[in-house]
Amino acid sequence: xxxxxxxxxxxxxxxxxxxxxxxxxxxxxxxxxxxxxxxxxxxxxxxxxxxxxxxxxxxxxxxxxxxxxxxxxxxxxxxxxxxxxxxxxxxxxxxxxxxxxxxxxxxxxxxxxxxxxxxxxxxxxxxxxxxxxxxxxxxxxxxxxxxxxxxxxxxxxxxxxxxxxxxxxxxxxxxxxxxxxxxxxxxxxxxxxxxxxxxxxxxxxxxxxxxxxxxxxxxxxxxxxxxxxxxxxxxxxxxxxxxxxxxxxxxxxxxxxxxxxxxxxxxxxxxxxxxxxxxxxxxxxxxxxxxxxxxxxxxxxxxxxxxxxxxxxxxxxxxxxxxxxxxxxxxxxxxxxxxxxxxxxxxxxxxxxxxxxxxxxxxxxxxxxxxxxxxxxxxxxxxxxxxxxxxxxxxxxxxxxxxxxxxxxxxxxxxxxxxxxxxxxxxxxxxxxxxxxxxxxxxxxxxxxxxxxxxxxxxxxxxxxxxxxxxxxxxxxxxxxxxxxxxxxxxxxxxxxxxxxxxxxxxxxxxxxxxxxxxxxxxxxxxxxxxxxxxxxxxxxxxxxxxxxxxxxxxxxxxxxxxxxxxxxxxxxxxxxxxxxxxxxxxxxxxxxxxxxxxxxxxxxxxxxxxxxxxxxxxxxxxxxxxxxxxxxxxxxxxxxxxxxx
Length: 646
Fold this sequence. Notes:
Blueprint: H1 30-57, E1 61-62, H2 70-103, H3 107-115, H4 122-128, H5 130-155, E2 157-173, E3 184-185, E4 188-189, H6 191-202, E5 206-207, E6 219-243, E7 253-262, E8 269-280, E9 285-307, E10 310-313, H7 315-320, E11 324-327, H8 347-354, E12 360-366, E13 372-376, H9 385-390, H10 406-409, H11 418-438, E14 445-461, H12 463-482, H13 498-504, H14 519-526, E15 531-534, E16 537-540, E17 543-546, H15 558-561, E18 570-571, E19 576-577, E20 637-638, E21 641-642
Antiparallel strand pairs: 1-14, 2-14, 3-4, 5-10, 6-9, 6-14, 7-8, 7-12, 8-9, 9-10, 9-11, 12-13, 15-16, 16-17, 18-19, 20-21
Helix pairs in contact: 1-2, 1-12, 2-3, 2-5, 2-12, 3-4, 3-5, 4-5, 5-12, 6-11
């Protein structure tokens, strides 16, 4: 049943009248085709070159040196490549379609040339053969390339942790001399010195600035050396034998840590005295060792290690290989008197007060049972804690340093406290010099060469995967390029736009496009035509085109059928059967479509232009003559001209 629900479509806009606008054929614009093809090819080649460049350049480079990771850049390039490859393939399909049409083919193969570009049409295009099969195989390759190029390119780059060593320049603020008064005065130790003593005892971290050069970037350490306030020192030692079981030696000093300052030479000296039993034989005869170290203020070169923004002075390394730059003395270290007791003190006096926490001693003590032990001193300024820290407890282990019965009777061995004391002294002084420079801006700024050692994250390129990726990209370009062959034969820029392909296939609705062939030209000529498709019919600018197999049922009323013995328009497989047109309720005429070898009278216009209007249908009775039979009427005249009927 014919759908009569179409609404009337407005006519063309503008002043042009139907049938009066024609288009002269334009000269083919093949340069557009060349521009499109070579632009896409250039973009695809640029994607290949960019992928190679990024992956080669990023090989063995630090991850922090790239604002965007190579994997992200390669992913973006892969997306551009996939889009461009799709555009080039679409251009190739278009060229293949038009070349196939120009060379002559069946509608079936022509259809599958374009349908074969989609996976849903692969099988049919493969069976159709010819250009359709070529398009199908190319589409299959392009599909695989577009699926593989992204993942494969990502496999070509990875991140690895590598142990590295390289030279860097570091900065630190460290005072070469601690100014007098920084530790306070003789009778009042400043809180700054107390804080340095606390940090030394707690082994608190020293944090430097977070600015470039101050902190060690990366996951590693920066090792170098910088000058700072310290001491030049020399040490001596002497030993005596002591019978630990002799009652006369009870209460004798067998462990001692003590400090003092002497002003006997031109330069004041800080003295460290330690005493301990260094060895015991099986008869409990011990070796009592006394060590004396004298220190004078000096500028020394400290080995330091910076990890992130934490600075570590390598005191043990310095003690093994002291590096003294220059000795110095200050008025604050002169011998105190009643007149100078309130004056600022220097580094030696500050050290004397700051390290007083280590003063301690222990004496020989006879047990009520068999054997001897020690008693920690509790005199003025003495700390009973340190003898317990340095006593040798190996008597409780299998790897005892004791011999024979000494393990049970006289376990009084100590490790030497001198090196730990020197370590504390230099650590205290380094922290004080670091703190003294902190509030002075760049006055004590030092730049020094350092070596970075650590683990870094590097971008690494897998060149095997890179080769596979490039091979896939080149394969895609080559496959798409196969369809471009022969584009010059077309002589103009072609597309698969519906109006362009319909015009090439002789669609009646596009007959007014005249000599226009390209889509833009066709639209420019008849682009203001109003069209509507519904119910198997196309209404175009006041005319209705039957586009499918439809018939008018016999139970339609006369109003629906129109005047006369109108029959339906029937399309079969081989052509179109002609019947009389009928007038629709909306006032439009159905077109009388004739066999394809005959000319068409579209919209009942005959040979006249559409501006002359639409004539009325002539009612004819096609039955054999009878008493009521009418003859075929003569042709009607419009405007004084005779209308010739076919």
